[in-house]
Amino acid sequence: MSIHGEPLMNARRLTRKAYFVDEKAVRRARKALGVDTDAEAVRLSLERVAEMDDFWRLMDRTRGRLVPGEIESP
Q: How many CA atoms are closer than 13 Å to the CA of 21, on its beta-carbon side?
């Protein structure tokens, strides 16, 4: 199983959880993320939130210290 061509997370890192979620929100997330299952949508959504948190922390730490072109794009 894969998410957008990337291998699914290492199964040893996955933990079964049970939550109540808004079904409409999960459907919207599945569509926005282009995934087939609710589980993929939840996992990828959580990963994206964590990535954005890292990004904003970087932005806060480097505010006013970076000049245009200092960071190379991938």
A: 15
